[in-house]
Amino acid sequence: MIDKNKVKNILFITLSNLGDIILTTPVLESLCDEFPEAAVDVITGAPGAEIFEAHPSVREVTVCGKRRSIGERLREIMDLRRKKYDLVIDLKNSLVPYLVGARSHSRLSLPGGGARHKKDEHLAKLSVLRPRAFGGARFYIPVTDEDREYAGGITGPEKTKNTVMISPGAKSHLKRWSALKYAELADRLISELGCRVLLIGNEDDAVVIRKVSSFMERSAEDLCCRTSLGALFELMRRSSLVITNDSAPLHVASAAGVPTIAIFGPSDDRKYGPLAERSVVLKPEVSCRPCERALCSTGPVEGCISRVEVKEVFRAARKILLSTER
User: Region 20-44: what's the mean pLDDT?
Assistant: First the structure.
């Protein structure tokens, strides 16, 4: 067991993609709770800089570039060694804890088998601290006054009835439910349930969002590339429902605690599904999933996610929205 009084410097090595990074923030929050007097440094991918640089307990953030020479990597290791870390929590399972000479570090192999949510898997690395559960650890997403003002200008000061945020993008095309189906769903939400629909995404999602808008008969509000991470979190917190593929906004919705309908294809919803109460996962009933592959060897070009029907998603949305009204 680690002597907490001797832990003065902590290195936290997190992941690279935004959604994955968000799922690691409960680890940082738990570390800060366990060692409130320790200095914490973070190594992260570029999307994590916005999150960790705003954290009040983080001393220094190092952003890992994808292309670094051997000399640059060696210099980084030497710089880290000079900081004499007492504890390293490494979610990448790299050799860095050994190379920097940490007194204690998260172990590479974890007990137990089977699929479990990535949030819980990351928190299990804290078993080096003491044998207790950290499952209730909170997420961390920084929200500024400007983020709150921006969100308030769109939704008003409080939670808005029947505001639905739709995120139709995803990095892999196999994780994207079709733009045509999203358009049909949005039209039904507006015409049959009187919803206000906000389309969200980043620059990588712009083409998909334009397709959704062009297929729609009704009008949705396009917020693509118009929200910071904090503003997105605040908008979700004020909304009634988020509908999304397996992508970063799914995990922002979990952090915001908003009911979520997550449409899954090849990825494993047991590992990456929504965590907010009253959330629903809709997925194709095929024996080969979750394959977690980048290419579908048996299905159509768009993969198994295409088997999820609009009526299923609309039915789930109506149930959540009607229960919210009560």
Answer: 95
At 94, the pLDDT band (50, 70, 90 cuts) reads confident
What pLDDT, in 10s, does the model give residues 248-260?
Answer: 999 999 999 999 9
Task: Report if pTM > 0.90.
Answer: yes
Q: CA 106 to CA 96: how far, in whole Å? A: 11
Rg of the Cα atoms in the chain: 21
Rounded alpha-carbon distances, angstroms, from residue 137 to 29, 68, 152, 233, 255: 7, 34, 28, 18, 11
Residues 291, 212: Cα–Cα separation, whole Å: 27
> Helices 229-237 & 145-155, crossing angle to 10 degrees?
50
What secondary structure letter does DSSP report for 65?
Answer: P
Asked if 58 and 52 touch (Cβ cutoff 8 Å), the reply is: yes
Q: Say how far apart CA 292 and CA 265 lie, in whole Å.
A: 9
| C-alpha closest to that of 165 among 258, 290, 299, 96 | 258
Do residues 180 and 213 make contact, with C-beta atoms less than 8 angstroms apart?
A: no
